[in-house]
Amino acid sequence: TPGVSQVALRIRPMSAAELAEGARPIAHRLDDQVVVLRDPMEDPDDVLRASRSREKSYVFDVAFDSSATQETVYRATTRGLVAGVISGHNATIFAYGPTGCGKTYTMLGTDGEPGVCARSLGELFQAIEDANGDTEYKVSMSYLEIYNEMIRDLLNPSLGCLQLREDAGGTVRVAGITEISAISTEEVSRRKPMGHGVGLAKPPLPGAARLPQVLQLLAQGNRQRTQEPTAANRTSSRSHAVLQVTVRQRRRGTGLCRGHLFMIDLAGSERAAQTQNRGQRMKEGAHINRSLLALGNCIKALSHRASTKYINYRDSKLTRLLKDSLGGNSRTVMIAHISPASIAFEESRSTLAYAHCAKSIR
């Protein structure tokens, strides 16, 4: 049903660096939905606090531990959204959590273990090819980053800083963004909208055959993302990466139907103390936290809509861009990520609390 959100929690394996520091696992999956986090600072021999549980349980729609495969995560969270997008609904998938907890791995994956983006596009292309012949489909894509509250086109970074514009119908768009034509059942052509398109190789190919070309462009775009080393991660992504897929369908005798699929790899949600950032990195962190706070406030407002008359999407570029994809006829999936290590306790606790709040969106 559109509007209903799903929140998943994924625990990554312990890293070599964490093991070298002597960290021990304090987060584990109890069953398909429950994750338990233990406070490593509480003394088990403290008689006065013995009655207080050192463990806190969090319930999600689905929980994954480090043994979960990319295919398992995709099937449980995202696979069911593709049919809705083809029939004209909007869908949004977020990867949320601190730096180094596996967000980019879940979304993009590797050549051997593709992530949510590749699997969604493969499923989408296949569904369109399998559809009956009286419907024409066009799929286009754009890929951008929001860095320090500025929007950059990852497929054509030379365009500089782009602006958000709201059209007469109230839809928010990025002016001048590059769109690539990923598949068209009417005609597969090299398309350059507004003079800035990125053409795909000829000759025309069916969607399944074109998938590697599209993924190559995504990988190329991801390499353009703003990354800087921090104490939390040597290649920390300092921006939110937003992949937007638009499916247009026209049946004979009916009008145009349009569905949007947003796939978003959010910047790390960790505190400044965790990254030991100063100067420019500290400013970046403030912008990251501002947009994540704005997203959290929208999620909170949407989850208590009966008592909230106004939802403030204008607090950040991220929430403005996602205005139509958080509520209304949209389905929202958040995949939150944590490390199981004792040294990551504070980050894990705040991530679990944030994701738990997101579970209330209706």
UniProtKB/TrEMBL annotation:
> Where can this protein be found?
Cytoplasm, Cytoskeleton
Q: Which Pfam families match?
A: Kinesin
Q: Which Gene3D superfamilies match?
A: Kinesin motor domain
Q: Which InterPro entries match?
A: Kinesin-like_fam, Kinesin_motor_CS, Kinesin_motor_dom, Kinesin_motor_dom_sf, P-loop_NTPase
The residues the entry assigns to the signal sequence are: none
Q: Where does it primarily localize?
A: cytoplasm
Q: Which UniProt keywords are present, listed alphabetically?
A: ATP-binding, Coiled coil, Cytoplasm, Cytoskeleton, Microtubule, Motor protein, Nucleotide-binding
Chain segments annotated as transmembrane: none
Give the source's domain of life in one word.
Eukaryota
What is a biological process (GO) this protein takes part in?
Answer: microtubule-based movement
GO cellular component, alphabetical, reads: microtubule
Instruction: Work out whether the entry's keyword set contains ATP-binding.
Output: yes
GO MF, one example: microtubule binding
Q: Which residues bind ATP?
A: G97, P98, T99, G100, C101, G102, K103, T104
Listed SUPFAM superfamilies: P-loop containing nucleoside triphosphate hydrolases (SSF52540)
| Domain Kinesin motor stretches | 4-361
* Protein family membership: Belongs to the TRAFAC class myosin-kinesin ATPase superfamily. Kinesin family.
Q: What is this protein called?
A: Kinesin-like protein
* Gene, per the UniProt record: Kif19_1
